[in-house]
Every structure is written in structure tokens, then in C-alpha cells.
Amino acid sequence: MISKATKFLSEVKVEVKKVTWPSKKEAIGGTTVVVVVVFLVALFLGIVDALLSKIVQFLI
Question: Averaged over 2-16, what is the pLDDT?
């Protein structure tokens, strides 16, 4: 059991070395894009929700 875990962790270490990690600038840029898109989608859904709510209130 311990030998399997040790083998697994050594394989993980080899695979992690193959990864091309983003630079700090790339990570910040990607995070900024995600935050802006989430904000815009939330704003859009909030507006649609408010409009549909008003329509339902008008119909009732």
C-alpha cells in the first residue's frame, strides 16, 4: 500500500514538471477576464429577472 502511494506521488511529481505554468501577468489577466465576465452576466441576469418580475406582477 505504501509503495503504491510512493509510486503515485513520484509519478505526480514527474507530470507536474511537464506543466507550463502561467506567469503572474497571465494569471492576473485571466482572473480579471473571469471577474469581468461574471459581473456582466450577473448584471444581465439581474436586469432580466427584474423585468420578468415586473411583467408577472402586471399580469397578476
Answer: 93
